[in-house]
TrEMBL record:
It comes from the Eukaryota. InterPro entries: AAA_16 (IPR041664), Hybrid_Histidine_Kinase (IPR053159), P-loop_NTPase (IPR027417). Residues 1071-1085 have a biased composition (Polar residues). Residues 43-273 form the Orc1-like AAA ATPase domain. This is AAA ATPase. It comes from Skeletonema marinoi. PANTHER family: HYBRID SIGNAL TRANSDUCTION HISTIDINE KINASE G. Gene3D superfamilies: P-loop containing nucleotide triphosphate hydrolases. Residues 151-174, 1071-1096 are annotated as: Disordered.
Amino acid sequence: MADEFRIEGCHGTIAEQKDEAFYDDRSDASDDEEKGKIKFPARLYGREKELDSLKKLYAGLMASEVDDRDDKVLKSQVVFLSGYSGVGKSTLIKEFVKQLRGSKNRPNKTNNNNNDSPIFYGAGKYSEQNSASSPFFAIIEVLKTLANELSEGKDSSDTATEQREKVRESIRQSDLIGPEKEGDLILRATFPVLTPLLDSCVVADDKGANEDLTVHPTMSAIKECTLQLLCAICRALDNPLIIFLDDLQWADEASMDMLNVLLTSSELKNLMFTCAYRSNEVDVEHSFCKLMDNVAKGDESVEKMELFSLSPTSITSFIADSVKKEEDTEMKELSSAVYQTTMGNIFFTKQALEELVRKNILFYDMMCFEWRWVVTKVELANNMSADVVESVLGKIRYLPEEIQELLSLMAYIPNALDVSTLKALMCRDGVSYEERQVLDLLQQSSDEGMLLLVSPNWIFAHDRIRQASLKFASEKSGSEETLLHISSVLLAEGSDREWCQYVAVDILNSLPVEKTDCNELVKLNLKVSHLARNSGALGKENVLVHKGLERLKAAGMTWTKDYYELTRELYDALLVSEYSSGAYDAARVAIDEVVQNAKTPDEKLIAYTHCVMCLMSETSEYGRGAEEGLEILSKYGFDIPLSPTKTVMAKEEMKYKLALRNRSISFLTTLPIQDDSLLALCQQINICAMYSGKLDVMKLLNWKIIQYVLKKGSISSNLAPILGLCALMYVKLDDVKRSNEFATTAQALNPRIRDDKSNYVQSVMGVCYAMCLLQPFRSLTDPFLQSYKDFKLMGEVEMALNGLNGYAQCFFGAGCELGPIIESKLLVVEDYCRNLGRQSSLILFSMFRQFALNLRKHSDSPSKLVGEAFNEEQVLSELEGSAHFQTLRDSSSLRVQLAFVFWNEADMIDLLKILETYPLQDQFVARLHNRLAFTGLAAFAMCHRKDCASYKALGEKCMSRFKFLSKNGSVNARPVYLFLKSMKSPSRDAFSKAIEACAEGKFVNLEAMVNERYAAFLREENDEAASNDCITEAYFLYQDWGAHAKALQLSKDHSFLKKLRRKTTRSFAHTVGSNNNTATASVMSAGSDDPASKKR
């Protein structure tokens, strides 16, 4: 025998190795070991500590749900799990879920008994090929799993069925994502994988409810709807939901944006969110690292865990179990060699062992029925690849050609693939396959540990296997033809699967220019960019538009005759994308390109409009925006001077009236609606003119707009928000009649423009602000709250917060009932502001919440804004300039109301000194109303003091405002005006009229205060009985308002109140007249069993 076939140090000699099958043909063996394949044990090694930690976190989450008291429930438990590739992160979570599901010793959500309710689990994994991935890649996988499990699922037990019905009912009850609601449509459009779950929630009465409603999802809308979906699911489940996202170092921008909301939301409870990432691929500048920092800020429900490689002992145990041997000296020699190469990485360890088997270094001895190796430790190490990808690559090279082809094709695609798509991919170059043949190849690949079946799709078993397959594919000749084949198959398959189009365009963009059809590829980039925008993935949209332009430029086709329309469409998409992303300089470059090359004025309108919008958004240069906007409008026949004279104003007003021909402005609602980009430009210029105080310019512009639409015979959806702005303009000019006329016309147009969400909501907002002049505050709270929700969905943060500010001001001004509901709403908004870095808004809404808390809960200093939500002194000390000026105005406005309610004269005087320095004007009617009402009341309350006599003039200024509005029909102003009159000139008649007006307008807060002040007046007149009756009525009215701290103060000051209960529900306004008769309060003695005594 030749010496080269002799191995020194071995027990015996091995034969010449022609190939593996020659000397070890075990193809007919039924057992893996007899076939020469190593079989790895399924159990987890060396992770007992980490498993225990996860179980304790889950148990803590369950315990917090059991102990659900007030606000003491933990938020969702977040776990950040780090470790190198192949260290076993996903295996750990799978084992954790497996053990949880197998355990019956779990506390129930409502008691501590064992429960058999199912634990629902969803997992998703990001791909290294993130440029080819659709937005929310792994999140979609999670939602798909949950949708399938919650609509049907494998578990058909009674408890599982009950849980599914609870989830469906929870979704049905949602105002946002319930069947046929806007959120339902947004979720279906963005995540088609949710269709089974959302369809299961539909009942017969809901079908077709919103057939005509169309949606254009924004990222904000997608985030909010996804959040509310998870809230609805988690709220219904007995056991906390578990979500696992893997390889977040490769997550796309849209997913990061989504996770920032989900992981920080105070609304989302009963959920364990585990986020795994490769610690060696994430540095401090990585977007995921920044996300973790943001989520972990002061949050005790966030846990960080790091997985290290397994210890030599664990690796020895694993290998010993794999080869079914005792952990003796010989075994430790093998494990030591393997550990030296793999350093305890479990995936690498498996690949190394398989490599030793392939090279017949580790083999199953058919004679002895055991695994053996007959080489030294050094030779063991020399026969293992130093790199895991190279080890897997070596394995691929041993596989049959058909499996190599299958793996090569799958390597270019990040998504899981079904058999039919794989069949289409495999059929090429004249070779055809049946599905059963492809399925057989998939099964063989699975047997080799290369692929996994996640029914009905197939995926790579590990990222390193994909990397090795991709490397193998790139080494083959004809890779460009392969990529063209893959892209053509995906485009043919992708008519109803968006991810196919994302992958196809990414593949085609990677090919040389000469390999692709320029025209078709540019159109595909534009098409997929629209898909990305509709999914809220503005970053991906921007990349795709740039890719399309790069192709056109590389081909030298931009602005040429054949490509003119396509070029213009690309640049319009680019400038919109850059503006939406906040890249204003880049947007201006695209704007200049369109302005210089577009042929007609109409083709330049989108660019001109965004030119004005850039000035507003980037630097808030409203004056300059108005100036440049008017210059642009002059190109379209709108000649409007920046500083119009009275003569010009008079002439233009005459033209405007002639155009109307004695018709009301409401005539505009009869005109048909058509798209008009010029009115979109006029809308932006109106905003600039409004915020720069150029009201005469606004008047001129809107007179010309109305003349323009009357001449044209049609309007666009932009006209409604323009009319809303006009209404606000007349509010500023104190022209109540015209403000109401324009507001009601805009309101009448709104139902016709509902499909244009942006203009619809802007119009509603303008109408709400304007109608604060005349309409009851109480009737405007819901529209303001809805505008907040709508703008939030649209991503218009500033407008959303303005809407919520309007809601809060109207809520407090109307005297709506205080309590945990309003406080929880404000708390959610505080989270929203905090996540977006909106510090000024965060301060405002925290201030509102503290105001409500002071009225509702006892405090030693109720007229000071200091407590769990807000600390005025601390906040003001950290502010300066205009921020300090505005915050002091807002806090003083709330505090003067508290000082008046709790009758703290010292604080009223101090606050009047502050408030008298502020102008008695504000474009926000409700905010001005609340400030002037209590400034005036406090001023009249204090002006009787010698050192405060000057405040009488301040009170009269405030009162004149409410007198003017009352004469013009304001239902909000009249009770305040009469209250002010009673404080200025107290009398029985004055107080009685004020009480009656408050009761009629349902201002329970003011009615309570007037009664209390009337009681003080009657006491000074020595009418103790009537005074007590007034105090009694005030006491119950304060309770109705929810101002329990004030009611408690009254009960301490007037001991007789503790012995009384309410007898009837009638207001004291109907019992106290203007004569001298003693009024009788509706009370009865304590201990009465009259059921009516407990309600007003």
